[in-house]
Predict the structure.
Amino acid sequence: MSIIQNIKIAVDAIVFGYEKNQLFVLLVKQKFGDTKNLWCLPGGFVLNNESLTAAVTRELREETGITVNYLEQLYTFGDKIDRDPRFRVVSVAYFALVDPSKLTLTTITNTDAEKAKWFPIDQLPDLAYDHREIIDTAFARLKNKLTYQPIGFDLLETEFLFSELENLYTTLLEKNIDRRNFRKKILGFGIIDETDKIISVKSGRPAKLFKFNEKKYRELELKGFHFEIKFN
Amino acid sequence: MSIIQNIKIAVDAIVFGYEKNQLFVLLVKQKFGDTKNLWCLPGGFVLNNESLTAAVTRELREETGITVNYLEQLYTFGDKIDRDPRFRVVSVAYFALVDPSKLTLTTITNTDAEKAKWFPIDQLPDLAYDHREIIDTAFARLKNKLTYQPIGFDLLETEFLFSELENLYTTLLEKNIDRRNFRKKILGFGIIDETDKIISVKSGRPAKLFKFNEKKYRELELKGFHFEIKFN
DNA sequence: TCAAAAGTGTTCTCTTTACACCCATGG
DNA sequence: CCATGGGTGTAAAGAGAACACTTTTGA
């Protein structure tokens, strides 16, 4: 305690978006510093009187203009002491999800970040620091969490087609799904409401729009219900 | 970045031990400071050139003399900015398990902590800071994790009785278990080896000692096996 | 011989899997 | 009328739940 601690605390956000069978990660390019020409995760240092959660949402707003649908703490990266070559930084990483409406970024005119851009998860550019590793951790968490928490809905529009939900799962988890069994199971949970809307997309038979009923889910959860989807 | 960040990083450890149907948490009483007469979690500030993991193990050694069987990052507490009344501290909490041999503490002659002591989880003293909340989080994680990861074995001696495993689950999860089904299921996993030892405890029929086969577990895990125990 | 805990199988129920054809629309 | 994706039921297999008596030892 008598020794002065010289470690900085940062927060980083891994924001996932999904559209047309592709998962995207939101990255920014910094204007200044060593990482000038590298992309990195949105984030930055925590202010003295700011909670960690406030820091992430502020950085996201400042650097990308985005507000997210889902946010949770992922992991704190602080074992590699030289993960930032400038000085010791411990980073608390947050994991966030947005719906497709956020995938077109409005121009950002701010101070820190030159620009923000969505990258497909399988076409990431070179990343600063250990941000690649952080994204891998987040992606693993996303895939895992999809199987036991109803977070897939946060990656879809409020009203979605069953096939979109289905494709979300098959794409991200790289597993095949029996459409009938999947539908039966999900609908059996009783947490998805059918809307009275039917829409037509390009070709094929028009399909019903569905809606996640979060209230119902919370109720069932209290009664011991566990969302769970298994794959072969 | 031009503003000086004035936040300290600490690590805290929630160490669980289990013996005779009771779960214990390891606490320490500080010699100095505001928390002089309160118990708190072992932990302290991270040194400049020390990884977070190294900081926890060091603090545990210094304050309690213990080395643990299992250690994982739990959560980073940094949303309440006045969780420490002295100054802003963000604490990375780690969750640890020890076997019953660690439950008798050797005398600690060190600098920071006056003394270390095991407390039953349901008889915790008044705790400093938000440590009560941290313990609650850790306890919830423990209970949850017990159902999907074979960590219960880290709370038992290397060789254990089936009834001990059974009691661990019934005690911590407060659920009844059908002994036959439980045994059938666990043995069916193929990750527990029967030893050729049979021991007698007080009264009743003597029982076989079993041993967790971690190597086997890792192998099966790679092939897609998932440890899972459900309760009614 | 009694008390205490260990050990052991079978049946029933429920959940999961496998599987294929018709429907509604747009072009 | 053809291509495209949407919508649906049933049977078989596997997993989980319910259930009670015998065995071995120490006191």
About this structure: Residues 161-163, 179-180, 183-184, 201-208 of chain A lie near DNA strand D (CB under 10 Å from a C1'). Helices of chain A lie at 52-64, 131-146, 162-173, 179-189, 214-222.
